[in-house]
Amino acid sequence: MTNTASNPSQTILTRRQILASMGGGAGMLALQALLAEETADAAVPDLYAPKQPHFQPRATRVIWLFMHGGPSHVDLFDPKPDLVKYAGQPLPDSFGSVMTRRNVARNPLLGPIKPFRKRGESGLEISDFMPHTARHADRLCVIRSMHGDSVNHPQSVYQMNTGNILMGHPSVGSWVAYGLGTENRDMPAFVVLPDPGGGLKGGPPAWGSGYLPASYQGVTMRPGEAPILNLAPQPGISAEKQRNAFSLLQGVNSEFLQRVGKDDELQARIAAYELAFRMQAAAPSLVDISQETEATHQLYGLDKKETAEFGRRCLLARRMVERGVRFVQVHSGDTLGWDAHKDVLSNHSKYCGSTDLPVAGLLTDLEQRGLLDDTLVIWCGEFGRMPMSEQGKGRDHNPWGYCSWLAGAGIEGGRALGATDPIGLRAAEDRVHVRDFHATILHLMGVDHLDLSYFHNGLEERLTGPQEAHIVEAV
Asked: Between vectors from CA 326 to CA 401 and to CA 226, what angle results, nearest 5°?
């Protein structure tokens, strides 16, 4: 054994040895942190982890442009020569009576407010209300035979978003988050960008998780320094204190979960705390659109007063899917929105004016960045509008026949699927119910709607419900 006291040279560390020792210590600290995280992950199932689809998907992410209030299909994407021919006349007897709460079947037919024109190489007809979207006609697949089950806004909003006219069921985005997870651990799988002008009829249950774990509900985000309310720590709370408090809380919750076994609510709460902590750093930079070029700002209409607000949210949607968010829903329309009872021209001029350019910019931007190939873009409202007039220049609700359109995800554009009757009153050819629409969305994402289920109150619940649903194969 060597006596180090009599050999001082062996007790002196070189600069290289000191740096190596420090580096090793830092590595051990990092390893300890990783092992702690893996241990926590093992104790608590990762509800947001990416999951394998049932089969090869055409779309890996979705941007849903939801036009709240009911845009008029016969004035936007469903040209009807007979509606022009019979404008000002009563509803022909051959179409039968349609009774609504306002009994507008007695009112005369109202012709299209603006002319339709053939667009692009395909000749798909689109109204002059949508000149910018019309430039993308060859990318759009318009479904002209949509139909649902309720004439009222809240029930139709619920049905279009959750598959059921009653509240309390998971939204489409929640089902997608549950079935596929997220590709970015710092962000939720399902994000909602609400219209700042007011509430959606039906409210938050339209993007809720229903009986699924709460972790899968839509997270609402806003532009600006505080994209999520109450996310940032209180002033005076340092990052170290925040981390210590979070670690203590998660440790106690995880230990309790190990003792009691499976507890969906507790697992969801643990996952939500973890996600919130990660989002404190990720969310502010995500909504910082100052990083985008001036050309991109102009593409979305951020330089124009009428398009700036919706354009900003469309740009945020692109930034989110680019960073791995699975499902983004962008709302247009406040409490009333596209609900053109009094004057279609005034109402649709306003809402088309605010959304048309940003939507076109979104499609262009996605394609330029190579994202449109596997991003599904959806445009629709909760229903359409009647061919008959209301209050002279308006139209009432019409859930019996209306339009939606899809783009991206390898979908062949420049065409229309299905048809309403000659005046646009009812879906008549290749009818597509809302549950068929939902089954098709899941199918495009590689998910079999029959195999995506959740056991609740003794039943295997599905987005498409117990009724028969058909995939629109032509999409």
From this structure: 105
Burial class (CB in 10 A: 0-12, 13-18, 19+), 423: buried
- For residues 358 and 300, the answer to whether their CB atoms sit within 8 Å is yes
Q: What is the DSSP letter of 448?
A: -
Pairing of strands 327-332, 124-127: unpaired
Neighbours of 292 (CB within 10 A): 16
Q: Alpha helices, DSSP H only, in 407-449? A: 434-444
192 and 331 in contact (C-beta within 8 Å)? yes
What domains sit in the chain, N to C, each tagged with a CATH number? 61-224+287-461 (3.40.720)
User: First-to-last CA distance in the chain?
Assistant: 81
The confidence band for 5, taking pLDDT boundaries of 50, 70 and 90, is very low
Beta carbons of 130 and 360 less than 8 angstroms apart: no
* pLDDT tens digits along 352-397: 999 999 999 999 999 999 999 999 999 999 999 999 999 999 999 9
Distance CA 51, CA 372 (A): 22
Say if residues 379 and 317 touch (Cβ distance below 8 Å): no
Residue 219: name the closest of 158, 267, 177, 162 by CA. 177
Q: How far apart are CA 72 and CA 347, in angstroms?
A: 10
Phi-psi region of 163 (alpha: psi -120 to 50; beta: other; left: phi over 0): left
For residue 319, give both structure tokens: 């930034």
DSSP lists the bridge partners of residue 416 as: 142
Question: Up-side HSE of residue 281: CA atoms within 13 Å toward CB?
Answer: 9
Q: Which amino acid is at 238?
A: S
How far apart (Å, rounded) are the C-alpha atoms in residues 244 and 54? Answer: 40
For the ranges 16-25, 43-52, 160-169, the lowest mean pLDDT is seen at: 16-25
Q: How far is CA 437 from CA 142, 145, 272, 420, 451, in A?
A: 12, 11, 30, 16, 16
CA distances from 397 to 110, 348, 417, 425 (A): 14, 14, 22, 11
Largest separation between any pair of C-alpha atoms in the chain: 115
Per cent of the chain over pLDDT 70 is: 76
Q: How far is CA 69 from each of CA 37, 318, 385, 403, 431, rounded to the nearest angstrom?
A: 46, 24, 10, 14, 22
